[in-house]
Specification:
The protein has a domain at 279-390. 7% of the residues lie in helices and 11% in strands. The chain has helices at residues 3-21, 290-296; strands at residues 279-282, 298-301, 307-310, 333-340, 350-353, 358-360, 365-366, 371-380, 387-390. Strand 1, helix 2 and strand 2 (298-301) form a beta-alpha-beta unit. The chain is rod-shaped and about 130 Å long.
Length: 391
């Protein structure tokens, strides 16, 4: 009997033993044959609780499932029942696991979006990398997603980088955030560093040093916008513009006008009164308050005799100087207007009189039928000894 026929008989014996042991509990079948082949399907089966081990004692060998020219499906864990499919889960020994990384256009799907399906990918200090070809498009989240997409939720010190590669000369890197067109009346909301915190926060936009020209567009679209900058209920300090070189700031408005609330400090050291109603001092000897001078800034009168107009004190916490916006400085200027509505022929005047710390320069009188603008300049900001000169 030749060797080929002996191997055929061995194969028949193996198949016979497989059938014979299907119904026997705890059966053990060991074969030393190096090849098992058949002209039809090959089935290895057992009972419901059977355990199948392939290459359990192999150490340096290679275990191959599927042919090198395989075109049919290879299925692992194709059960419709709940099961656990483990791959490279040994607790010791570093494993290198490859999934579809051959040099061909493989299409790989991992996970399911049915029900409570989930996917967890973790990494140690060896880092986590998602890479592709030069023209690869990366998509996170489907168009129908209603759940949250979270990138970087650490409570520790960490750095999150988005599009911070050094762009090569002549090329453009575009980073778009919430840049899609809203469908119908859809609403887009973007929050940056908007969480409540007791710590300090810094948000920098175009804060780097560059020799190139930078353009920052904020609310430049054609749709009507409401733009808030630092208008929360806090003592915010806001700086707009630079005094370097030919730096310029333009503020324009349409028919809605420009409204300035509170005192305004300009580079020229001049303050502007609030939009408050004029103060009618009628036919009285007036001593206006600090708020009336700095906020309203307009006084109307109708004297029947000469009436004094005495400035409030310029000194101390309740004085004119410390009430100026920001940090008062020598050279600050504020102004107010006195309007004398008496008949020109009456001769009755408003006579401006100095308060504590004030000096009147020039003729202080406001003639009947005229208005006079009085400019006061801070000449000393020493605490409780402040002084002003009014012209």
């Amino acid at each position: 009997m030749n060797k080929f026929r002996k191997l055929n008989l061995l194969g028949i014996a193996v198949l016979t033993l497989t059938v014979a042991f299907v119904g026997v509990a705890n059966a053990t079948l060991t074969m030393d044959a190096t090849t098992i082949a058949g002209s039809g399907n090959v089935t290895i089966d057992g009972v419901a609780a059977s355990v199948y081990s392939i290459g359990a004692t192999t150490t340096t060998g290679t275990i191959t499932i599927g042919g090198t020219a395989q075109e049919g499906a290879i299925k692992l864990g194709d059960s419709t029942a709940a099961l656990t499919l483990s791959l490279g889960t040994g607790a010791s020994g570093v494993k290198t696991i490859h999934i579809g990384d051959g040099a061909t256009a493989n299409v790989i799907t991992i996970g399911s979006n049915n029900g409570a399906g989930s996917v967890t990918i973790t990494a140690g200090t060896g880092n986590f990398a998602v890479t592709g070809a030069a023209g690869t498009t990366y998509t996170i989240g489907a168009t129908t997603t209603t759940g949250a997409t979270t990138i970087g939720q650490s409570t520790k010190t960490n750095t999150i980088n988005v599009g911070n590669g050094a762009t090569e000369a002549g090329l453009t890197q575009t980073v778009s955030i919430a840049n899609g067109a809203a469908i119908a009346t859809g609403v887009t909301a973007v929050n940056i560093a908007n969480g409540a915190t007791a710590g300090n926060s810094t948000v920098s936009i175009l804060g780097g040093n560059t020799t190139g020209t930078e353009v920052l567009n904020l609310g430049t679209g054609t749709g009507a916008k409401t733009i808030h900058i630092g208008d929360g209920a806090a003592a915010n300090i806001i700086t707009i513009g630079s005094s370097t070189g030919v730096a310029a700031v333009s503020i324009t408005a349409g028919t809605g006008e420009i409204t300035l609330t509170g005192g305004v400090r300009a580079t020229g050291r001049q303050t502007v009164n609030k939009a408050t109603a004029p103060v009618n001092i009628a036919d009285t000897a007036a001593t206006p308050t600090v708020a009336q001078i700095l906020d309203a800034g307009i006084f109307t009168s109708l004297p029947t005799v000469d009436r004094t107009f005495t400035l409030p004190t310029a000194q101390g916490a309740a004085g004119l100087v410390q009430a100026l916006p920001g940090t008062p400085a020598v050279g600050d200027v504020f102004s107010f207007v006195i309007n004398n509505n008496a008949a020109l022929a009456s001769g009755f005047q408003n006579v401006v009189t100095a308060g504590a710390g004030a000096t009147i320069v020039g003729v202080p009188n406001v003639e009947p039928g005229f208005s006079r603008t009085v400019y006061c300049r801070v000449t000393d900001v020493t605490g409780d000894s402040e002084t002003i000169s009014c012209y």
